[in-house]
């Protein structure tokens, strides 16, 4: 029996030696882990959270490796340190940035069911106010103007406009009111703009076309009296015809007057106001519109129309000069316009329109392209909210 006893003792001694060797190796690894933890704690106390988190992560990786290699070594200590590291890593990890909301204009456009026609007629509910915001930027480039002058002419603006359906009329029309409630120019409130607070009241027919103005003379008087110069006053007296004011409050008369299907096209001629050395210029734009398809956004479906057109015109010269203004310079204007419209069939309302106009203005007496002023006019109009009429 003794040989077997001696053999057992020898095996026990060998096993004990191996255990001691493993314990020593595990302790060495744990010492490295603990050193990383102490270093990370010091960095965290100094506010260097990114570096601290990096060391906590390294310590966690090393401790998990120790646990895998030596599963029976000081299990309570290993578990405690893993919990500690998990807490510290979480505390030093910056909060996730909220996901950016995808803009309606970024949504893909798909054909949808091209056989279903859509009625694009705008419908305003009586007693309801519709708030629209218009963001606009005007950028001019020219070799004939110095940088300081160009900087003064470049503008960005944000206007808030409320369109209210006051009541329904017999026959299908409505009594309407449009008011610009606020405006910013280059980031500053336009407190002295005569348009701010002005209410334009008008009647529409059953098709939504502006039939008549209820306070036309009041509108003209306010805008003329708020002009900054006598020349501007005379220009406004000439420009603010009843037809012009009707156009100012007309909502998207380029929409088709009958239901259309995806792929259908139609034409529309509109007036566009340009910025030029002679003041505000009005040109006629012939545009082509296409019902392009559908865009899904935040649980709703929107019909998408795109459009584009070119225009050309002339202005200035003695014939076009405002009373009291002496000028013999005439200008030629050429340009194009393009844009997209997002229409909600559920709301019977346009919820967004993006438009870009690019045009050039050049003295008619000089064909040198270097004398031209090039203008980029970008506009985004959005339906911000619906509220009960005030």
**Which topology of the largest domain does CATH recognise?**
Lipovitellin-phosvitin complex, beta-sheet shell regions
Judged by helices, strands and strand pairing, the structural class is alpha+beta
Q: H/E element string? A: HHHEHEEEEEHHHEEEHEEE
Largest sheet: 12 strands, antiparallel
Q: In angstroms, what is the radius of gyration?
A: 36 Å
As a percent range, the share of helical residues equals 25-40%
Indicate the proportion of strand residues.
35-45%
Uncertain runs with pLDDT below 50, 5 residues or more? 1-17, 318-328
Number of strands: 12
**Which word captures the global form?**
elongated
The separation of the N and C termini measures 108 Å
Q: Report the total helices.
A: 8
Characterization of this structure:
- Strands 1, 2, 3, 4, 5, 6, 7, 8, 9, 10, 11 and 12 form a twelve-stranded antiparallel beta sheet that branches.
- The chain folds into two domains: 2-91, Methane Monooxygenase Hydroxylase, Chain G, domain 1; 106-388, Roll (Lipovitellin-phosvitin complex, beta-sheet shell regions).
- It has helices spanning 2-45, 49-69, 75-91, 147-153, 216-225, 230-239, 242-249, 317-320; strands at 128-142, 155-168, 174-185, 188-189, 199-204, 210-213, 265-276, 279-297, 300-316, 330-344, 349-363, 373-388.
- Strand 3 (174-185) and strand 4 (188-189) form a beta hairpin.
- Helix 1 runs antiparallel to helix 2 and helix 2 runs antiparallel to helix 3.
- Mean pLDDT is 83; it is low at 1-17 and 318-328.
- It is an alpha+beta fold.
């Amino acid at each position: 029996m003794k040989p077997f006893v001696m053999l057992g003792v020898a095996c026990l001694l060998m096993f004990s030696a191996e255990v001691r060797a493993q314990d020593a190796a595990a302790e060495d690894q744990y010492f490295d882990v603990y050193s990383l933890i102490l270093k990370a704690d010091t960095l965290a106390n100094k506010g260097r959270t990114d570096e601290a988190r990096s060391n906590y992560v390294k310590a966690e990786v090393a401790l998990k490796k120790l646990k895998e290699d030596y599963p029976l070594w000081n299990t309570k200590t290993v578990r405690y340190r893993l919990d500690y590291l998990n807490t510290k890593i979480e505390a030093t990890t910056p909060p996730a940035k909220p996901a950016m909301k995808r803009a309606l204009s970024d949504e893909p456009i798909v054909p949808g069911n091209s056989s279903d026609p859509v009625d694009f007629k705008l419908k305003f509910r009586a007693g309801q106010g519709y708030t629209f915001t218009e963001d606009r930027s005007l950028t001019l480039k020219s070799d004939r103007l110095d940088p300081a002058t160009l900087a003064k002419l470049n503008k960005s603006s944000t206007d808030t406009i409320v369109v209210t359906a006051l009541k329904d009329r017999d026959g299908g029309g409505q009594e309407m009111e449009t008011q610009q409630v606020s405006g910013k120019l280059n980031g500053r409130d336009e407190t002295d703009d005569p348009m701010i607070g002005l209410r334009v009241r008008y009647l529409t027919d059953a098709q939504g076309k502006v039939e008549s103005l209820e306070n036309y003379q009041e509108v003209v008087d306010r805008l003329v009296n708020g002009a900054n110069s006598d020349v501007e006053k005379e220009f406004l007296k000439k420009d603010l015809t009843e037809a012009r004011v009707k156009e100012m409050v007309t909502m998207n008369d380029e929409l088709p007057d009958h239901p259309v299907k995806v792929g259908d096209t139609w034409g529309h001629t509109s007036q566009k106001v340009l910025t030029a050395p002679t003041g505000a210029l009005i040109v006629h734009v012939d545009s082509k519109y296409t019902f392009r398809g559908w865009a899904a956004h935040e649980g709703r479906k929107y019909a998408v129309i795109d459009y584009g057109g070119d225009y050309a015109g002339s202005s200035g010269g003695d014939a076009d000069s405002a009373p009291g203004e002496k000028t013999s310079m005439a200008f030629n204007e050429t340009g194009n316009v393009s844009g997209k419209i997002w229409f909600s069939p559920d709301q019977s309302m346009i919820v967004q329109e993006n438009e870009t106009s690019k045009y050039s203005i050049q003295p008619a007496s000089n064909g040198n392209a270097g004398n031209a002023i090039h203008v980029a006019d970008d506009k985004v109009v959005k339906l911000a909210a619906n509220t009960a009429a005030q």
